[in-house]
Structures are given as C-alpha cells and as structure tokens.
Amino acid sequence: MPAVSDLSYDAWLEHAFSPPVRLHGYPWFFDEDPPWWDPQPPVAMDYFTRLFSTTERSLAGFSDAQIAQGFTYLLSTSASGDNGWFYSTSTPTGARLRCVETIEKLFADLFAPRCATVLGHIDEPGAGPLNSVCYMWWDEFPCVALPNDPDCDLLHRAAIDVMRRTLRLDSIACQEAALHGLGHWARYRPNDVAAAVDEFLGDSRDRRGELVSYAQSARCGCVL
User: What pTM, to 2 d.p., does this model score?
Assistant: First the structure.
C-alpha cells in the first residue's frame, strides 16, 4: 500500500477527512492499496495536538459523517490506529503529554455540542454520526505508553485525568464515553478509576438510572 508521510497539516486534514462517506460498502481506507499516512511519531503528535485543540477551526469544512470516518481511519485500532505514534519515545515526553491532555478540549468542543443525547451502551435510537466515535474513543484509542516506558505512569494518569474531567461536561454522550474508557482501565488502575467514578457519582447532578448503573459497572471494569 502506498505510504504518505510528507503532508502539511492542512493537506493531512484533507487526506483524512475529505473523502466522501459511502452509503454502502466499506470506507475508502479498506479499499485495495489505499494511501496510508505514515509520518514520523513527532510529526503525528504535533498534528494530533493541533487537531484536538482546534477542532472547530480545523474541521469546519467537513460533515459530522466525514469527521467520524476520518477519526476512525486515523485512530481506530481496527483501521490504521496503533502505529506506535503515541507510545514512541522518539517524541519528547512533554509533547506526548500535551497531546493526551488536549483530548479534553476535543470532547468539549466537538463531541459535547454535536453528539445526540443518547446512550451507546444500550443502543438508544437517535444517535448521530459522531456518537459511536465518541462512545468508543478510549476503547479504540491507540496505546499511549508501553510498560517499559519510564514515563508510562505519567502518561496513563494523564489519560485518566482527561476522562475524569470529561465526566464534568454537560453531555451524556461524553460522560458515557469517559465511563467506558475508565471501565477498560479499571483492571490496571483500579484506585484511580474508582476515585474518578466516585467523584462523578458523588456530585449533586441528577442522572439517568442507566448512566448510574453504567458508572457502577465501569468502576469494577465490567464494560464491553
């Protein structure tokens, strides 16, 4: 498959998000020999950090369906995700940390205003194109650090902190996404996850019973 490695930031946005969404059949990146973005890890971290922190401006020309397709192509481990960009130690730790931390802004600026107020884990009807990407974000997201990385603990805690702060958004879709991610991290970071979920359940906001039950399941790692 042809590799694409020398794209400018704007050309990269066009490459990832401009292809049309097909009504039937596989997306373009599952075609035979599609062009795949294959940058050096520091370039990937720079571009993702810029994208996560400027979604309104960077993605202004694309539909929600194109954005969903683009994020699936770039980040989903079922597509081109987990190429080692996020956990590569060739990128300075500070740059990797900033990239993870800007995901909080992505949720606040993109998913919170655009996702329908429905729950994914019960397949509630009415979801928009971005709901599935939001719900599966931390499930499909590439690994942020390997066990032998000296900064593994720092980066993993940063990701959990992003999830914890995402729970404060006034968006049921974003809250569910954060709980979904925490549920998958509970096996490895049980104390951090329990603290985040308890903080969420302990505030004074009214919550749907289905979300409360999901939070309790996430606390013990019982999510799919």
Answer: 0.95
